[in-house]
Amino acid sequence: MGINRKPKKMLVTLLALMMTLSAAGCSSGNNTNNGAKASNEPAATTAADATAAPVNADEPGWKSDTSPITFDWYLNFAWFPNKWGVDPTSQYITKKTGVNLNFIVPAGNENEKLNTLIASGSLPDFITLGFWEDAVKKMVEGELVLPLNKLAEEYDPYFFKVSDADKLGWYTETDGNVYAYPNSSSSPADYKKYGENYVSNQTFVVRKDIYEAIGSPDMRTPEGFVNALKLAKEKFPDINGQPMIPLALHEFTATGNDSLEAYIQNYLAIPREKDGKLYNRETDPEYIRWMKTLRQANQDGLLAKDIFIDKRPQMEEKIAQGRYFAMLYQRTDFAAQLGTLHQQDPNKVYIAVDGPANANLDAPRLNGPGISGWTVTLISKDVKDKERAIKFLSYLNSEEGNKDLYLGEKGVSYDTIDGKDQFKPEVFELMNKDRSAFDKQYGSSFTFWMLQNTNITDQWAPKSVEPFKQLEDWTKGKTHSNSEFDQIDPLGNSPEGIIGAKIKELRGKTLPKLLMSASDEEFDKIWTEYIKKQEDLGLSKFQAFQQTKYEENKKKLGM
């Protein structure tokens, strides 16, 4: 999603909005973990409706009305499996706030379902989707969603106290309003405060027993990488009667492959910009060198045909079987399988090791949490109760709401143990053993993640256990904020967006061809044609749009 707004106008609007609130509540220091600056915390305001109870920026608004109400909440994720009210945590929150939720999840293609809803002009009460989705802008421009700041001013100024001013600023539109609020968001200011604990999802992992059996080789250079794959295949041709697969990548899609784009480029520490100008990372000599390395690996029989056709379910099955030797893959995507492998044999788990590196062997620059977050949540213009909706959103966004959704109900999923609020031992054990069963039996630890704020919940987070800890620890210190590069792509239906879509489709078709080419000469021919086709499609126009957005982002972030 592209956000086209001027930083000065945004800042003036936000300050004006906050100055409408009294300073009476600014002394509260209970929300230090939400990243908002104390000077930006507004306090009491006068209710817009003189007949309504006075609203108070210092008090959670939801407490004023806990009568039963059910909101419909659309989640644009077909894989989301959970229902509200099945588990003790959601039951506890409903009992406490009076709010029940009816989740609406698409059965098939998410974009088709959401576009149908948008076309109808009528949306469920709450909508949660990825921040990058064009649908966010469509809903805002179509006036299908309400400004959160206006709702908060009228009904619940507490929203401003429990929301991060930087994130409100980031999501302020050209009309001065905020329609979406992110989860899993970390601003540059958060990095200064919590950054040393941030971890990345981007990992290069190997199966521990196989890696050690071939001598724990250095896989940072092209030669060492290919040789390690060869040794693994020679020594372990089969895994439980099935062919061993030397290397796994994210699935190939119609628009590309995550492992062959941002992942490997980050491992090679290829810069995203040079001298203030966005850098086309895939033209970097280091990237081309490693793509040719993978081409050679395929020629040597080290890239199984499976990796070009398997989707995530097939990959999960093969990970659970331990059939891959190495993977350039998102660690959270195989956490469940990793836990299963660890139960079977701790020596057969996947561990993070130093992977592909540039010629200088620089440390990778991995993606950490950004200010855009992961998903954003909006409130529909058709919401059945505006007041209860913004108050419930404030509750979910607050430290109290985050604690409830993370730890659950005291005595059920957590207790105060050794002076610290933490998960009960049997609860934590089930969480690591069987996440699906945990979600249904307890529903805590962000089974419902729509407004999760890990900067808040880190104070209650249990220390990671193996086999997950090793992967997380490996990424610490290599994780960086890339917020200024967020949301620089154009809307899909804009001229630049159409160019971008065609370039992605071209990339999706080209990447497999490059890896399956018969020689470096054939690789070079395909590559030259690929670059030429990008230029013919209008790459320069697409890049100019991104550059403008990037420069706007830097101003918004004060960089």
UniProtKB/TrEMBL annotation:
Give the top-rank taxon of the lineage listed in the UniProt record for this protein: Bacteria
Family matches, as PROSITE patterns: PROKAR_LIPOPROTEIN
Looking up InterPro entries in the UniProt record yields: Bact_solute-bd_prot1
- Keyword Signal: yes or no? yes
Q: Does the keyword Transcription apply?
A: no
Which stretch is the leader sequence? Answer: 1-24
Identification of the protein by name = ABC transporter substrate-binding protein
Q: Write out the ranges of the annotated region (Disordered).
A: 33-61
PANTHER family in UniProt: ARABINOSE-BINDING PROTEIN-RELATED, POLYGALACTURONAN_RHAMNOGALACTURONAN-BINDING PROTEIN YTCQ
Task: Tell me the keywords, alphabetical order.
Answer: Signal
Renumbered to this chain, the Low complexity biased-composition regions fall at 43-53
